[in-house]
Input
Amino acid sequence: MSVMAAVHPSERAESDVVSNAEPSLAIRVVGLNKSFGDVPVLRGISFDLSRGQVLSIIGASGSGKSTLLRCLNYLERPTSGDVWIAGYPLTFATDRNGSRRNPTAARIARVRAEVGMVFQQFNLWPHMTVAQNVMEALIQVRKLPTKEARSRAEYYLAKVNMLDAAERYPSRLSGGQQQRVAIARALSMEPQIMLFDEATSSLDPELTAEVLAVMRLLAKDGMTMVVVTHEMAFAREVSDRVMFLHGGLIEEDGLPSVVFTNPRSERCKQFLSKFLG
Amino acid sequence: MLGLSLFWEYRAILFQGMLINLLIFALSSTVGLTVGLVACVGRLSPFTLLRTASAGYIEIGRSIPEFVLLIWVNNVMPVALSAIVGERIRFNPILSATIALGAVASGYFAETFRAGIQAVPRGHVEAARALGMRTPQILRRIVLPQAIRVMLPELMSQNIGLLKTTTLVSVIAVPDIMYQVGIIGQQEMKPLPLYTGTAIAFFLVIFALTTLVDRPASQLQRS
Output
């Protein structure tokens, strides 16, 4: 289901939903700034991402890559700048008179439902079984009847090869299994975009491989993905585009073949040399 | 042996007294939990004024001894209110006891609620937000079910403490068990069996209550 179809006509009237983005764009970011107190973390980030593309964001710790990702679904509130997700302005809504105001909670929640996010720490809810974890937002947000939510949850758990664990609690699962459930939970909402925030950073190499395999599959299916990662081999092999962030600025942005073999920026060269040897 | 037969002899009136203790406990616990929850929400609110006011209330509630507050609410508050309204106001001692004990308890309950809510990892809330869940849904479905498990043991011991504290209310002439024991003790000139009997009675009541609550509580914690 597209975002546009989900909008009630009466709500569409108050906001210029698609006027600033082309339909082929999944994400448009313009002049995005984010500071924590006096500390600037993102400094004027702008980029477009087409539908179906996989973008990997790399960079040292503190370069702002996770913050950038979290601004894309408003888990962090940008200090200034604009973000459009599938044509929706997420950061600021504009009323009929053209004045800007913060988006309503309803708007934010609706856009978030179109953007799946996978976290480094999995963040499964420990008091619910695997199946309940996946069904929760389907029932609460998508308003599906329990039966339908259940069958959809099973479909996506099967997709990440976790259907057998449907009735188990997260604490009984390995990190890799938990992360695959978290991916199923995000996918079951049938989002247009998936965000991965260092999804494999707290897993050992063997478990990392099983999670990356699921992510590869998603990319092959044509899912639009933004992946913050330290897995350079994965970024190189799977992405359509790689972005290197440093000090809250985009230092390098291009095809993986170019960024990994012939980066223009000296900092990017240094950073990559640590990984690629 | 201890002459507990005297305690037994007055069992009807002492039982009534104990019921008053339980009534005041039930009332002040309800007030404490309700006001405590409100104060906790205020304490965690993003609005500075609300946060400061709630924090102030909690600190005051926790800093005034129950004994002092009982007397103040029963004897000073009506005078102050009468002066404002211009009409003579008197508090029923049971009402005074409920207000005073409820106020102190709410300060402690609020902090227990806060500890429980803050024990839920931020990531769990963020995951729910990222899926498009709204704040009331997140509280009801994600935060509270987890927080309650953390709060439960502390809430139980605070409630037991509150039940014990109800034995102070005789100071404002609430006819609770201690009030009755005091009167009978003076008449009979035998305080030993009466106070020993009261101690045993409280032990039995609290032991029964904790046994009753323990099982469902630990079931909830395990689930």
Observations:
- Chain B touches chain A through 20 residues (CB under 8 Å).
- The longest helix of chain B spans residues 11-43.
- DSSP finds nine helices and no strands in chain B.
- The two ends of chain B are 47 Å apart (CA to CA).
